[in-house]
Amino acid sequence: MTATDHTRLIGRAELNDLEAILAVANTDVTEALHEVHSNYDTVFTWDYNKGARPKLEKLYEKAKKSQWNGETDLPWECEVDQEALVIANAVATGGFGGGSLDLSGTPLASWGEKEWIQFGIESQNWTLSQFMHGEQGALVCTAKIVESVPWIDAKYYAATQIMDEARHVEVFGKYLNTKLSGHYPINAHLRLLLDDIISDSRWDMTYLGMQIMVEGLALAAFGFMFQMTTEPLLKQLLRYVMSDEARHVAFGVLSLQEYYAQLDASEIRERQEFAFEAAVLMRDRFLQQEVWERMGIPAKDVLPIMMQDVSERAAFQILLFSKIVPNCKKLGLLDAADGWLRRKFTELGVIQFEDWADTGAEYESMDAVSADREAALKTS
Ligand SMILES: [Fe+2]
Ligand SMILES: [Fe+2]
């Protein structure tokens, strides 16, 4: 791929040009409303034959049964001590700071425990804020899918997902407001991605951008955080959100598999490019540039150092792609058109996930809501 191609797709010639990545910043942090123009057709179907797509119908029936209530099904009475959690996490993962990195001579050399604890707290505020913004993106995208997808089974299913996403925005918002210590505005890379997904006129691009890329990443990120956190409220919140998200990604995989089968090579190439662009925007946002700025340190001075970190944080950034890559493979996107996307994912350092489990059927085993209800019935 030439530098010109990169510039066209991701706005810079070099994938890892840190200065160009950090130049994409949210300068309108007091913005209260954000309008995106989209130009797509709203599609009615007069074919009401429910179950014409059996896998989607099964997903819809599952979604109806596994609804939960964000107010009453989570242990909101749990007290959250952010500082204690940051310290416990540092102890569990081998101490504060950049893991094995030598920070002498860097702006972080003077940081003691106090600064690293504050950084951990800000980092959590930032992460949960971005989850909340991403969830609103999903809410809006799913509403668009209901309007634009031509299949009745998909409209039915997407309608349940709208309710799921409203609940997710609600619970992440409540957790931030009542248990954490500050909000962050949407990260500029995430906002660009959501804008791209919303404004595209083709219904399948909303699916690819949201259901496969954003939700695939969210599912991996929530899973990682679920494993790491010892805070019981957040653990249960993530467990239930993931139970829904696994269905959402399955919805994308099941729908696009059928649709992509009838696209020609140039149309598939456009989808590959869109997947790559989305992957890069998502990777760039996890640099958490706003957290460094809030700690009073220019991100450009510390990120080159932190990016050498091979610890937990670095492992997390790679793991984010553990659902996306196998799902793209299942959709045939990895190897179509001379394996263009395979080369790009190799360049991004994430191709090793290609044979991990895809999310076409995983939702059944991840249905924590049903599992809890069945267990409660047995004990009552
Ligand atoms: Fe969600
Ligand atoms: Fe979702």
Walk me through this protein's architecture.
The structure is a single chain. With 380 residues, the chain is an all-alpha fold. It has 16 helices and no strands. It has helices spanning 3-10, 18-23, 54-65, 82-92, 113-148, 152-179, 188-199, 203-228, 232-260, 265-285, 289-294, 299-306, 312-319, 324-330, 336-348, 368-379. The longest helix has 36 residues, at 113-148. It starts with a helix and ends with a helix. Bound molecules: fe (ii) ion (FE2) (2 copies). One fe (ii) ion binds at residues 135, 138, 165, 168, 245.
Give the topology, please:
Blueprint: H1 3-10, H2 18-23, H3 54-65, H4 82-92, H5 113-148, H6 152-179, H7 188-199, H8 203-228, H9 232-260, H10 265-285, H11 289-294, H12 299-306, H13 312-319, H14 324-330, H15 336-348, H16 368-379
The structure holds fe (ii) ion (FE2) (2 copies).
Question: Using only CA atoms, what is the Rg?
Answer: 21 Å
Count of helices?
16
The assigned structural class equals mainly alpha
How many DSSP E strands?
0
Distance, first to last CA: 61 Å
Mean pLDDT: 89
Order of helices and strands: HHHHHHHHHHHHHHHH
| Largest sheet geometry | none
* Broad shape: globular
Low-confidence stretches: none
* Bound small molecules, deduplicated: fe (ii) ion
Share of residues in helices:
55-70%
Give the DSSP E fraction (strand runs of 2 or more residues).
under 5%
